[in-house]
């Protein structure tokens, strides 16, 4: 199976605007932002989608959410933010590599989509 675009970015085959990186994840600025702040929090381990995550992925999944919270503090997103995980084509998934969208700095309506 060919690498996903996120794997190619992690491997530095494709450039990206990186906001944060650690041993478990990389955080990128979305190239088609849907809000003034639109970051993608991506595990370095390929997990195709949250519906395919296993118990072995529990620490990584928790790390993604804690990273989102730390970034929200760092970026002073005091008015709030939204975290989104798309799963499958009907869920809006465009890349089969789990990632968390962090959106902020504009009012976000409900319901989404």
Tally of discrete structural domains = 1
Query: How confident is the prediction overall: mean pLDDT?
Result: 95
CATH homologous superfamily, by name? Answer: HIT-like
H-E string: HEEEHEE
**Percent range for β-strand residues:** 15-25%
Main sheet specs: 5 strands, antiparallel
* Overall 3D form: globular
- Determine the CATH topology: HIT family, subunit A
Second CATH tier, the architecture = 2-Layer Sandwich
Question: What are the low-pLDDT stretches, counting only 5+ consecutive residues below 50?
Answer: none
The CATH class is: Alpha Beta
Instruction: Please compute the radius of gyration using only Cα atoms.
Output: 14 Å
Structure characterization notes:
- The chain has two helices and five strands; from the N terminus they run αβββαββ.
- The chain has 113 residues and is of the alpha+beta class.
- The chain has a single domain (5-104), classed as HIT family, subunit A.
- A five-stranded antiparallel beta sheet has the order 1-2-3-5-4, covered by helices on one side.
- The radius of gyration is 14 Å and the shape is globular.
């Amino acid at each position: 199976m060919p690498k996903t675009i996120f794997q190619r970015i992690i491997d530095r085959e494709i450039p990206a605007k990186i906001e944060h990186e650690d041993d478990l994840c990389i955080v990128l600025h979305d190239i088609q932002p849907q809000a003034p702040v639109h970051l993608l929090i991506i595990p370095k381990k390929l997990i195709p989608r949250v519906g395919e995550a296993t118990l072995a992925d529990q620490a990584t999944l928790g790390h993604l959410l804690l990273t989102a919270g730390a970034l929200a503090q760092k970026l002073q997103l005091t008015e709030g933010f939204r975290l989104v995980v798309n799963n499958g084509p009907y869920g809006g998934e465009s890349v089969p590599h789990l990632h968390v969208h962090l959106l902020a700095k504009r009012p976000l309506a409900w319901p989404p989509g």
